[in-house]
Design brief:
heterodimer; A: MetI-like fold; 14 helices; 2 strands; about 0% strand; B: mainly alpha; MetI-like fold; globular
Chain lengths: ~350, ~300
């Protein structure tokens, strides 16, 4: 952010501000502390995780057995769970969030109606995670209990072939889909958690995409109209491409949020440490693992959980840095267009 | 939405909404899809609000707000201790985070707007907003809950209101810092020049001119931070834990609304489940009030 107005760059005030005073020292200390906190978080968690890092090393992220009573810890299922749940959530939230952002930035309906939708999305952002979890238990899980058997029937047992010579019937499904919707189906499952997660990251995608769409100069749109394009040809051909970096930033930042989301997932995903390919089966994420086990953990389990937390911090920091860099690039680009 | 100063003329409107043929049909079809998707987002919110009212209102009474949580199998009771615990830990978080947040904002906006430290602070604050809330809990667990040896032994260990408040402080620090920076940025530059012109020192200018003018916007940031902190569960479940009783001291496990909802939503006791809904209703009202007051304070300033 460029925060230096021209008048500040002249000698007078700038010179004045350089003079040391006690209050300045105090503010400096607070600023350094704000930066130091991030470092402190990483150092402290690494320090606590050290016994587990020494004990398991790389096998911690590569093995899939999480057995606290045998002191064997591997977080692969949870890393996979974090990635899969975030990606499925994005799959649902990105088209929906983008549609809402376009709706809010276009004049399809009068401003009052748009205001209602905007307020709705802001309300969705304000509802606590634990309330989403409660709502998921009462609404999404019953829906999934109906959807699960149907999905298994449709995608996994699509065709029934009679067995030859008295052998039992053979059931075949649609490739790929049959592994994603394999029986048995549960209410608490990867899919349940991902759907609620999609709803929770929707406001992030909508807000940042909308800002990017609104920042596209009106002259570009008018130019497209003047060349005879319809509204949607203008949107897809001119406005969305111009806003693309902002939409990418929105997606990345929403991904970061999805990876760290804890409570709703812990209440809905079923918290299993088994690695399965079925979306209808319980799973776990790094964050839900922490939420479930920290309260009663002891000894090596605490260090292992700290190791898992360290992985989560590194993953989210990486994603957020990427999102922030893209967002800055976007702001510079749009400044150029104007 | 056009950012140009000239409004598009009327015929333009007609040109893009009327017409026949495949292109016009396609355009109108996509408009319908877009509008329906936008209204689709209303359904979950309405569903959440409807269920909160339907399941939460029947049990909402004075006793629900003032009594202790019911044990499994009991009727009546409430979550008074959880409301007190939530407010207390949010207050601890505010007391710890606000001075740091505002002082850093003053440094990065008033003293050294373009310095390397200031840019680092802004970047780190953005990254801190992206850190998962449960990591704040893990950090507070490591710093406060785990027993300590050596020179840090004076820090009280164990699950406590301190630990919960500390976790919330880490969580809200970036919110307060970044909104306070925006607040200070919106103070007109002429005010500072006038103050310096009258012979005020740097400190006097910040303390008597800049801060008072930026205060409403800073308060907005603080209320947003309160709304965020009050709704969080993840930083509290293994720092403040939970308690069935009224709080006696800051050094013992403390109840909070969000953890109560989490605990009660997974029990098999119907009355406790109903209580989870009532507590959710109260929590959502609390968070919404904080959010709306943030907006009101902000609008007043404008």
């Amino acid at each position: 952010m460029e925060t230096t107005p021209p008048e500040q760059q002249e000698g007078g005030i700038k010179e004045f501000r350089r003079r040391p005073d006690l209050f300045r020292g105090l503010c400096w200390v607070a600023s350094v502390a704000a930066v130091a906190i991030l470092a402190w978080i990483i150092v402290e968690i690494t320090h606590q995780a050290w016994p587990a890092i020494k004990e398991f090393g790389f096998s911690f992220v590569a093995t899939s057995r999480w057995l606290p009573n045998r002191e064997t810890f591997g977080v692969l299922p949870f890393i996979v769970g974090t990635a899969v749940s975030s990606l499925i959530a994005l799959l649902f939230a990105l088209p929906l969030g983008l549609a809402v952002a376009i709706f809010l930035s276009e004049d399809f309906l009068p401003p009052a109606v748009r205001q209602v939708v905007r307020f709705t999305v802001e309300m969705l952002a304000a509802i606590p995670s634990v309330v989403y979890g409660l709502w998921g238990i009462y609404v999404v899980i019953p829906l999934m209990l109906k959807f699960g058997p149907w999905a298994v029937q449709t995608f996994h047992n699509t065709w029934t072939t009679p067995g030859m010579n008295g052998a039992p019937e053979v059931q075949k499904g649609i490739p790929i889909l049959e592994t994603l919707f394999a029986p048995p189906s549960y209410g608490n499952s990867m899919l349940t958690a991902s759907l609620v997660l999609a709803l929770m990251i929707l406001p992030t995608i909508t807000a940042i995409s909308r800002a990017a769409l609104v920042a596209v100069p009106g002259t570009l749109r008018e130019g497209a109209y003047a060349l005879g394009s319809t509204r949607w040809e203008a949107i897809f051909g001119v406005i969305l491409p111009a806003a693309a970096p902002g939409v990418v930033a929105a997606t990345i930042l929403a991904l970061g949020r999805a990876m760290g989301e804890t409570m709703a997932i812990a209440m809905l995903i079923g918290n299993s440490s088994h690695l399965t390919s079925s979306l209808l089966a319980p799973a776990g994420t790094l964050a839900s693992l922490l939420a479930n086990q920290f309260g009663e953990a002891e000894g090596l389990q605490v260090s292992s959980l700290m190791f898992a937390a360290l992985l989560l911090v590194i993953l989210t920091l990486f994603v957020n840095i990427a999102g922030e860099v893209v967002l800055r690039y976007t702001q510079r680009q749009t400044a150029g267009i104007r | 939405m056009s950012t140009s100063t000239i409004e598009p003329p009327d015929f333009l409107d007609r040109a893009i909404t009327s017409g026949s043929g495949a292109r016009a049909f396609w355009s109108r079809f996509l408009t319908c899809v877009c509008i329906s998707l936008a209204f689709l987002t209303l359904i979950p919110l309405l569903s959440i609000i409807f269920l909160l009212l339907k399941n939460g209102l029947p049990n909402l009474s004075l006793s629900a707000l003032t009594e202790l949580p019911p044990a499994a199998g009991m009727v009546g009771g409430g979550f008074g201790n959880a409301i007190v615990g939530t407010l207390l830990m949010v207050a601890i978080g505010l007391v710890l985070a606000t001075p740091f947040g505002i002082l850093s904002a003053i440094y990065i906006n008033e003293y050294a707007p373009a310095s390397r430290l200031s840019n680092t602070v802004r970047f780190v604050a953005k990254l801190l907003t992206g850190i998962p809330s449960i990591i704040c809990g893990v950090f507070a667990y490591a710093v406060i809950v785990l027993p300590k040896t050596g020179w840090l032994a004076w820090i009280p260990s164990g699950f406590s209101a301190w630990a919960g408040g500390f976790a919330l402080a880490i969580l809200i620090l970036p919110t307060i810092l970044l909104t306070a920076e925006q607040a200070l940025m919106s103070v007109p530059h002429a005010y500072r020049e006038a103050s310096y012109g009258l012979g005020a020192t740097n400190f006097q200018t910040i303390w008597r001119v800049v801060l008072p003018d930026g205060l409403p916007a800073i308060m907005t940031g603080i209320m947003l931070a309160v709304a965020r902190a009050a709704g969080e569960t993840a930083p509290l479940i293994f720092t403040a834990l939970f308690s069935q009783y009224w709080i006696q001291s800051f050094n013992e496990p403390t109840a909070s609304l969000s953890v109560l909802i989490y605990n009660f939503s997974t029990t098999f006791d119907d009355h406790q489940k109903a209580m989870a809904w009532t507590a959710s209703l109260v929590l959502v009202i609390l968070v919404t009030v904080a959010n709306i007051s943030a907006q009101v304070i902000f609008r007043k300033k404008q």
